[in-house]
Design a protein that fits this description.
- This protein has 269 residues and is α+β, with helices and mostly antiparallel strands.
- The protein has one domain: Jelly Rolls.
- The protein has nine helices and 13 strands.
- Strands 1, 4, 5, 6, 9, 11, 12 and 13 form an eight-stranded antiparallel beta sheet that branches. A three-stranded antiparallel beta sheet has the order 8-7-10. Strands 2-3 form a two-stranded antiparallel sheet.
- It binds 2-oxoglutaric acid (AKG) and fe (ii) ion.
- Fe (ii) ion binds next to loops.
């Protein structure tokens, strides 16, 4: 069943657009160079992340002990600090996410021009800090279950997500699966098993589209209420990606943002 979807999806991706379906893959001219710079940063940051995994005792003879990590994450009595929990679920620490090359990519003029053109937005703010992820091969704790970004970002009135792969995306390495159709927010307040991600939304009878076959310089744009989830990484490579959330004029946020007009990070009041 999954293979049938895979084949159909890969063929049909260009039929989907943001305005009608809540998601779209867009090729941004000239972005590749900036993406490659970010790739270097994330590869170095991964080495530090792996040192931390080792320090925590999760590498045994060079093999990641996924079962032990899963136990620690889901153990409600274990008071894991938020930074460690984030790292164990494939999210880079704040120092990495604040790297200037990531912001430089997020601010790319052609990227923002295309985002505005595809969504009718007038983007003037970027949520800070951007998210940067690493999904190790066959590592399920990093997989975000089916969700709407609105559930994770109650502090912004409206926004557009841009998912930017930092490696070439194919069916093996996986990427994001989208379930188009829902445009309204569904209440989802409970944390799931690993204590990091919200419980999966019900997606049993929904049409699914794997946004695979994306190259460096392609971005996936998502409406804040479009349901999506992480695909498994079945390859032997690490899947790096960014998610950057953009706000249009008139959208409000209670947290830090980067103001594109003044070129400054603005703190919350
Ligand atoms: O990178 C992933 O696996 C999930 C991405 C995601 O949910 C997002 O960009 O909003
Ligand atoms: Fe998401």
């Amino acid at each position: 069943m999954e293979d049938r979807y895979l084949n159909e999806d890969v063929k049909d991706l260009s039929l989907y657009n943001y305005k009608n379906h809540g998601f779209q893959i867009v090729k941004i001219m000239g972005l590749r160079h900036k993406v490659e710079k970010v790739k270097n940063i994330l590869e170095m940051a991964l080495e530090n992340a792996q040192k931390k995994f080792t320090k925590l005792g999760f590498y045994e003879n060079g093999v990641l002990d996924k079962i032990a990590i899963s136990k620690v994450l889901s153990d409600k009595k274990n008071k894991l600090d938020p930074e460690t929990r984030q790292l164990l679920t494939g999210q880079f620490p704040i120092e990495t996410r604040l790297n200037e090359h990531i912001l430089n990519l997020a601010k790319d003029k052609e990227l923002i021009r295309q985002l505005n053109a595809k969504t009718n937005a007038k983007i003037d703010k970027i949520h800070m800090p951007p998210m940067a992820r690493f999904v190790l091969p066959e590592y399920l704790e990093a997989a975000v279950p089916a969700h709407q970004d609105s559930s994770y970002n109650k502090h912004m009135t409206d926004f557009i997500t841009s998912w930017i792969p930092i490696v070439d995306i194919d069916e093996k390495c996986g990427g994001v699966t989208v379930f188009p159709g829902v445009m309204k927010e569904i209440e989802n307040l409970n944390l799931g098993d690993n204590g990091q991600w919200l419980e999966s939304l019900k997606i049993n009878n929904k049409n699914s589209i794997n946004c695979t076959r994306m190259s460096l310089g392609d971005i996936l744009i998502l409406n804040k209420n479009t349901i999506h989830k992480s695909m498994k990484n079945k390859s032997r490579m690490v899947r790096f990606s960014l998610d950057i959330r953009y706000m249009s004029q008139g959208s409000k946020t209670e947290k830090h943002y980067f103001c594109l007009n003044s070129n400054k990070i603005i703190k919350p009041n």
